[in-house]
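step=predict obj=peptidylprolyl isomerase n=247
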Amino acid sequence: MKLNTVLILLAMWAPVAFCGNGPVAARVNGEDISEWRLERYFAEYLEDQGRAVGNIRNPKAYKQLRQAALDALIDRELLWQEAVKRGVVISDARVHSQVDQTRQAIGDADKFARRLEDAGFDEAGYIEYTRRELAARQVFADLTQVAGPDEKQVRAFYEEHRAQMSRPEEVQARHILIKETQDADASTVADARLRLEQNHREATDVSEQQGLDRVRTYLARQQQAQARRDVLAQLRSSSRIERIDDD
Protein backbone atom coordinates (compact mmCIF):
# COMPACT_ATOMS: atom_id res chain seq x y z
CA MET A 1 0.00 0.00 0.00
CA LYS A 2 1.35 3.45 -0.94
CA LEU A 3 2.17 5.75 1.94
CA ASN A 4 -0.16 8.45 0.58
CA THR A 5 -3.00 5.94 0.53
CA VAL A 6 -2.27 5.02 4.13
CA LEU A 7 -2.35 8.66 5.20
CA ILE A 8 -5.62 9.24 3.36
CA LEU A 9 -7.19 6.35 5.25
CA LEU A 10 -6.10 7.92 8.51
CA ALA A 11 -7.80 11.17 7.54
CA MET A 12 -10.96 9.56 6.18
CA TRP A 13 -11.68 7.57 9.30
CA ALA A 14 -11.26 10.38 11.80
CA PRO A 15 -12.40 9.52 15.35
CA VAL A 16 -16.01 10.09 16.30
CA ALA A 17 -14.93 12.66 18.87
CA PHE A 18 -13.69 14.88 16.06
CA CYS A 19 -16.49 14.08 13.63
CA GLY A 20 -19.12 15.09 16.13
CA ASN A 21 -17.71 18.52 17.05
CA GLY A 22 -17.68 21.77 15.13
CA PRO A 23 -19.23 22.67 11.77
CA VAL A 24 -20.67 19.91 9.60
CA ALA A 25 -19.65 19.46 5.94
CA ALA A 26 -22.31 16.88 5.11
CA ARG A 27 -24.80 14.45 6.62
CA VAL A 28 -25.35 10.93 5.35
CA ASN A 29 -28.54 9.35 6.67
CA GLY A 30 -28.20 11.53 9.75
CA GLU A 31 -24.51 10.78 10.33
CA ASP A 32 -22.26 13.86 10.32
CA ILE A 33 -19.13 14.35 8.26
CA SER A 34 -17.39 17.23 9.99
CA GLU A 35 -15.56 20.11 8.35
CA TRP A 36 -12.53 18.99 10.36
CA ARG A 37 -12.64 15.59 8.73
CA LEU A 38 -13.11 17.12 5.29
CA GLU A 39 -10.20 19.53 5.77
CA ARG A 40 -7.89 16.73 6.82
CA TYR A 41 -8.94 14.50 3.96
CA PHE A 42 -8.85 17.29 1.38
CA ALA A 43 -5.18 18.01 2.12
CA GLU A 44 -4.30 14.31 1.78
CA TYR A 45 -6.49 14.01 -1.33
CA LEU A 46 -4.53 16.79 -3.02
CA GLU A 47 -1.20 15.40 -1.85
CA ASP A 48 -2.05 12.06 -3.45
CA GLN A 49 -2.45 13.95 -6.74
CA GLY A 50 0.83 15.80 -6.25
CA ARG A 51 -0.88 19.10 -5.47
CA ALA A 52 -1.07 21.48 -2.51
CA VAL A 53 -3.94 23.65 -1.33
CA GLY A 54 -1.82 26.81 -1.48
CA ASN A 55 -0.96 26.23 -5.12
CA ILE A 56 -4.56 26.24 -6.35
CA ARG A 57 -5.22 29.79 -7.55
CA ASN A 58 -8.42 29.19 -9.50
CA PRO A 59 -11.47 29.37 -7.15
CA LYS A 60 -13.53 27.20 -9.49
CA ALA A 61 -10.86 24.50 -9.60
CA TYR A 62 -10.52 24.67 -5.81
CA LYS A 63 -14.26 24.22 -5.34
CA GLN A 64 -14.41 21.29 -7.78
CA LEU A 65 -11.54 19.49 -6.04
CA ARG A 66 -13.07 20.07 -2.62
CA GLN A 67 -16.42 18.75 -3.83
CA ALA A 68 -14.68 15.67 -5.23
CA ALA A 69 -13.03 15.09 -1.85
CA LEU A 70 -16.38 15.41 -0.10
CA ASP A 71 -17.90 12.98 -2.63
CA ALA A 72 -15.26 10.43 -1.64
CA LEU A 73 -16.02 10.86 2.05
CA ILE A 74 -19.76 10.53 1.43
CA ASP A 75 -19.21 7.35 -0.57
CA ARG A 76 -17.08 5.89 2.25
CA GLU A 77 -19.78 6.65 4.76
CA LEU A 78 -22.41 5.06 2.53
CA LEU A 79 -20.33 1.91 2.13
CA TRP A 80 -19.70 1.68 5.86
CA GLN A 81 -23.40 2.04 6.60
CA GLU A 82 -24.17 -0.64 4.01
CA ALA A 83 -21.59 -2.93 5.62
CA VAL A 84 -23.35 -2.49 8.97
CA LYS A 85 -26.73 -3.29 7.38
CA ARG A 86 -25.33 -6.46 5.83
CA GLY A 87 -23.59 -7.56 9.00
CA VAL A 88 -20.13 -7.69 7.41
CA VAL A 89 -17.63 -9.04 9.93
CA ILE A 90 -13.86 -8.56 9.60
CA SER A 91 -11.68 -10.95 11.57
CA ASP A 92 -9.16 -9.75 14.15
CA ALA A 93 -6.36 -11.42 12.20
CA ARG A 94 -7.19 -9.49 9.05
CA VAL A 95 -7.47 -6.21 10.94
CA HIS A 96 -4.14 -6.63 12.71
CA SER A 97 -2.45 -7.65 9.46
CA GLN A 98 -3.66 -4.41 7.84
CA VAL A 99 -2.53 -2.34 10.81
CA ASP A 100 0.91 -3.96 10.61
CA GLN A 101 1.13 -3.08 6.90
CA THR A 102 0.22 0.51 7.71
CA ARG A 103 2.83 0.66 10.48
CA GLN A 104 5.51 -0.65 8.10
CA ALA A 105 4.50 1.80 5.38
CA ILE A 106 4.76 4.78 7.73
CA GLY A 107 8.07 3.72 9.27
CA ASP A 108 9.16 2.93 12.79
CA ALA A 109 6.87 2.61 15.81
CA ASP A 110 7.48 6.18 16.99
CA LYS A 111 6.54 7.66 13.61
CA PHE A 112 3.44 5.52 13.51
CA ALA A 113 2.40 6.66 17.00
CA ARG A 114 2.95 10.31 16.10
CA ARG A 115 0.94 9.94 12.92
CA LEU A 116 -1.93 8.37 14.81
CA GLU A 117 -1.80 11.12 17.40
CA ASP A 118 -1.85 13.79 14.67
CA ALA A 119 -4.97 12.15 13.24
CA GLY A 120 -6.61 12.00 16.68
CA PHE A 121 -6.19 8.26 17.25
CA ASP A 122 -4.70 5.99 19.81
CA GLU A 123 -3.73 2.54 18.54
CA ALA A 124 -6.84 0.83 19.89
CA GLY A 125 -9.05 3.39 18.18
CA TYR A 126 -7.17 3.02 14.93
CA ILE A 127 -7.59 -0.75 15.03
CA GLU A 128 -11.36 -0.34 15.17
CA TYR A 129 -11.36 2.21 12.36
CA THR A 130 -9.24 -0.15 10.28
CA ARG A 131 -11.94 -2.74 10.82
CA ARG A 132 -14.45 -0.19 9.55
CA GLU A 133 -12.37 0.58 6.46
CA LEU A 134 -11.97 -3.10 5.62
CA ALA A 135 -15.70 -3.68 6.07
CA ALA A 136 -16.46 -0.85 3.64
CA ARG A 137 -14.02 -2.28 1.11
CA GLN A 138 -15.47 -5.74 1.55
CA VAL A 139 -19.06 -4.69 0.92
CA PHE A 140 -17.97 -2.65 -2.11
CA ALA A 141 -16.16 -5.68 -3.54
CA ASP A 142 -19.19 -7.88 -2.89
CA LEU A 143 -21.61 -5.44 -4.52
CA THR A 144 -19.47 -4.87 -7.61
CA GLN A 145 -18.76 -8.45 -8.60
CA VAL A 146 -19.28 -8.97 -12.33
CA ALA A 147 -19.34 -12.15 -14.36
CA GLY A 148 -17.07 -10.69 -17.02
CA PRO A 149 -17.69 -10.45 -20.76
CA ASP A 150 -18.95 -13.57 -22.52
CA GLU A 151 -17.04 -14.95 -25.48
CA LYS A 152 -19.60 -13.65 -27.96
CA GLN A 153 -19.03 -10.09 -26.71
CA VAL A 154 -15.27 -10.54 -26.80
CA ARG A 155 -15.32 -11.89 -30.35
CA ALA A 156 -17.66 -9.16 -31.61
CA PHE A 157 -15.53 -6.39 -30.10
CA TYR A 158 -12.36 -7.96 -31.44
CA GLU A 159 -13.69 -8.20 -34.99
CA GLU A 160 -14.98 -4.64 -34.89
CA HIS A 161 -11.72 -3.18 -33.57
CA ARG A 162 -9.24 -5.61 -35.04
CA ALA A 163 -7.48 -2.90 -37.02
CA GLN A 164 -6.83 -0.99 -33.81
CA MET A 165 -5.21 -3.92 -31.99
CA SER A 166 -1.71 -2.95 -33.12
CA ARG A 167 0.81 -1.65 -30.63
CA PRO A 168 1.13 2.05 -29.71
CA GLU A 169 4.61 2.04 -31.28
CA GLU A 170 3.00 2.13 -34.70
CA VAL A 171 1.20 5.38 -33.93
CA GLN A 172 4.44 6.86 -32.61
CA ALA A 173 6.25 5.76 -35.77
CA ARG A 174 3.70 7.55 -37.93
CA HIS A 175 4.25 10.79 -36.02
CA ILE A 176 8.01 10.41 -36.44
CA LEU A 177 7.59 9.82 -40.15
CA ILE A 178 5.56 13.02 -40.57
CA LYS A 179 8.05 15.05 -38.56
CA GLU A 180 11.14 13.68 -40.28
CA THR A 181 9.88 14.01 -43.85
CA GLN A 182 8.41 17.49 -43.81
CA ASP A 183 11.49 19.01 -45.47
CA ALA A 184 13.40 15.85 -46.35
CA ASP A 185 14.75 14.58 -49.68
CA ALA A 186 13.38 11.53 -51.46
CA SER A 187 15.88 9.03 -50.02
CA THR A 188 15.12 10.13 -46.45
CA VAL A 189 11.40 9.77 -47.10
CA ALA A 190 11.95 6.30 -48.53
CA ASP A 191 14.00 5.21 -45.52
CA ALA A 192 11.37 6.54 -43.14
CA ARG A 193 8.58 4.75 -44.97
CA LEU A 194 10.59 1.52 -44.88
CA ARG A 195 10.92 1.83 -41.12
CA LEU A 196 7.20 2.49 -40.82
CA GLU A 197 6.36 -0.61 -42.84
CA GLN A 198 8.65 -2.69 -40.65
CA ASN A 199 7.01 -1.28 -37.54
CA HIS A 200 3.61 -2.06 -38.99
CA ARG A 201 4.55 -5.68 -39.71
CA GLU A 202 5.87 -6.10 -36.18
CA ALA A 203 2.87 -4.34 -34.63
CA THR A 204 0.33 -6.44 -36.48
CA ASP A 205 2.19 -9.68 -35.77
CA VAL A 206 -0.15 -10.34 -32.86
CA SER A 207 -1.92 -13.66 -32.70
CA GLU A 208 -5.68 -13.79 -32.64
CA GLN A 209 -5.56 -15.28 -29.16
CA GLN A 210 -3.44 -12.37 -27.91
CA GLY A 211 -5.92 -9.94 -29.41
CA LEU A 212 -8.87 -11.73 -27.81
CA ASP A 213 -7.10 -11.76 -24.44
CA ARG A 214 -6.53 -8.00 -24.67
CA VAL A 215 -10.18 -7.41 -25.51
CA ARG A 216 -11.32 -9.67 -22.68
CA THR A 217 -9.19 -7.75 -20.18
CA TYR A 218 -10.37 -4.39 -21.52
CA LEU A 219 -14.06 -5.30 -21.41
CA ALA A 220 -13.74 -6.80 -17.92
CA ARG A 221 -12.21 -3.55 -16.65
CA GLN A 222 -14.97 -1.54 -18.30
CA GLN A 223 -17.64 -3.70 -16.72
CA GLN A 224 -16.01 -3.43 -13.31
CA ALA A 225 -15.78 0.36 -13.56
CA GLN A 226 -19.44 0.59 -14.59
CA ALA A 227 -20.47 -1.69 -11.73
CA ARG A 228 -18.69 0.57 -9.25
CA ARG A 229 -20.41 3.65 -10.64
CA ASP A 230 -23.80 1.93 -10.57
CA VAL A 231 -23.44 0.72 -6.97
CA LEU A 232 -22.41 4.13 -5.65
CA ALA A 233 -25.18 5.83 -7.62
CA GLN A 234 -27.74 3.42 -6.15
CA LEU A 235 -26.49 3.96 -2.60
CA ARG A 236 -26.64 7.72 -3.06
CA SER A 237 -30.13 7.68 -4.55
CA SER A 238 -31.53 5.60 -1.69
CA SER A 239 -29.93 7.72 1.04
CA ARG A 240 -30.49 11.11 2.65
CA ILE A 241 -27.46 13.20 1.80
CA GLU A 242 -27.06 16.85 2.83
CA ARG A 243 -24.04 18.62 1.33
CA ILE A 244 -23.68 21.61 3.64
CA ASP A 245 -20.13 22.46 2.59
CA ASP A 246 -21.27 23.18 -0.99
CA ASP A 247 -23.58 26.02 0.09
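step=describe
Residues 1-20, 168-173 have pLDDT under 50 and may be disordered.
step=end
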